[in-house]
Design brief:
alpha+beta
Amino acid sequence: MARKVIEQIVVECNFGTEKTDEALNLMKTYYDGYLFAFGTDEYIYNPTLCLYFFEQFQEMCGYPREMLDDNLATDESKLEYIAQIPRGRDLLMSLMENKQQVVASRISKRFGIREMLTDKSKDNTFLVSFLYYFGVLTIAGETEELQVILKVPNLVMKSLYVERIQKMLLPEPEDRDDGREAAKLVYQKGEMAPLCRFMEERYLKVFHNRDYRWANELTLKTAFLTLLYNDIIYIMDSETEIDRRYADLTMIIRPDKRYGKIFDVLIEFKFVKLKDAGMSADQAKQLSENELCLIPEIVKQIKDGEKQVKDYGKKLDQKYGNLRLQKFVVVALGFERVCFRKIN
């Protein structure tokens, strides 16, 4: 049905036939991914978002500027509610750090106002069931131990998680504004240094209260993602599969936005623990930029990341073509320092 509607709009707007597949691919990227029954692998689209897309496409003969309908933006309030629950904050972070997936023993079939108002009931089953029934998580399958795997359905829902985590980690509006301005320089000018400095001086300090044992490149990627995420301009993805390998973060300009003076972006993240570098947090803070980037373990990680980025970049060019790709390797030393290399 979606194809027929799009084909009709394409004719009305005097587009070439290739516009049909482009529009359908965009819808699939942003709106597909919902599954509400076990025993099937047929994912469905969000109907409200599809109708929103059709209406905008028909009226403007162009794609919606914002792929999220304001009527669904209220879903962020569900995430805000979860973020106010101590275990909920960890759940939201875990979802972003683990390929947007979470495992639960079951999905609760019964909960209501009483459960929402009772702290004792807010265990992991309640949290994931709440997010599932409100459509911001969906079924992704089962583990070998027959536990339920749930995931963030698509890019539109992911944008809500990213925004909530950003507010959770950077509660001050000034910090969020400064972070976003630094992030803009990455895709507007190809400059990574301001964003890395912001991470060092203001953002990564938030993670000092989290256990270092669980820190890795996924934690680093989540921090950068919350500031770089922009689904108005980009098809944003993390862990993009390329020939059965994965790139950490890709920002591919939407097909209807390629006229802008901006770059496509590819970033590979690495994390070096302080003990692996043989130094304390205080010692790391005293390093100059040159000294930081000459630490043997960081040199090794940058070298490995450079090979990956070059390979991913070639595959992305083959897949999309006509990319203006800026490639970076970003390495964190604990939660103290961040260095990067821009790959030409």
